[in-house]
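In this section we walk through a basic example: taking a raw amino acid sequence and producing a predicted 3D structure, encoded as discrete structure tokens. The instruction is simple. Fold the sequence below.
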Amino acid sequence: MKVSIIIPVYNVSGYIERCLDAVLCQTYSNIECIFVDDCSPDNSMELILKKTSSYSGHISFISIHHPQNKGLSVARNSGINASTGDYLYFLDSDDEIPENSIEELVRLAKKYPDVDIVQGSSDVLENGHLNKMYQLKDTLPEFSENHRWLKKKVLERVWIPVTSWNKLIRRCFIIDNKIFFKEGLIHEDEHWTFFAAKSIKSMAFCKVTTYRHEIHEGTIMTSDSQKSISSWLYIIEDFMNNIDTDMTRIQRKVILEVSFCNLVRIIRQSSNFSIGDMLNKQKELLKPCFKNALKRFQIFELILLSYFHLPVCLLKFLCMNNIKGLYFRILKYLV
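The resulting token sequence is shown next.
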């Protein structure tokens, strides 16, 4: 079973050697490693070439060069199109994986032939502290082919991490269902996961830690608030336009959840743009959701959508850490 590890490369000279060393040390041998140079302005690719040119093991290497920077989504899509593996594994270039990662994930892929995704457990460091949200719970089964259960768990965004990395993904699953990454977005993993949930038929869970990720200052997660909010507005609209008839309730809950999270971003990061403009854009996007809830006489959904009619001073109060949790509790239990 061949695995294609896809590594987008952009301005990561401080991390790429550590990432590459982790790949070279893998105990599983049938690997092709695809580097996608997204027009990196530093010497990341030179560092890669230096290491790979002296490598004499079983791993094969492919390098793809983008003549201009196109972003993480396009880089991953380029890697997908160039891959020849049975399974794909997305690895961010500032992260690393333990030496037995691919072997552990492949073990489950072989145990459950043609499984769509094997999800690994991750150690994520945020401000020096371990975020246990990305570690798989012991209560998860080793394998499931219950589509409705899997779709619910993926969309709930609690039990299964909303990431494309640290997933061993059957290449045919992506190609046949056309689940590529949306160009121009940040938070592309959240967008990708929503659509992957609609098609997934089987999934295995590897409780062993197979990925190490650290959130760095200046990354997408910690910078460019306006682009982040604009990306979420696109994601909300795309989710709204692609609600299917299978488990519509949980899909509406996802929309309500990510919309409120975006409201918090708008209120808290409003120094660079007009709060009113962003609120009006999101309000317009959610009008069909409001009309649908009104038609179905869903009182709590209407309440949860009514915050756009509040003045900004009350919205700021609603977005306070100790208050916003009430919104999510209502959403969890009553919608």
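Looking at the output, two observations stand out. The radius of gyration is 21 Å. The first strand starts at residue 3 and ends at 9. In the next section we compare this with other chains.
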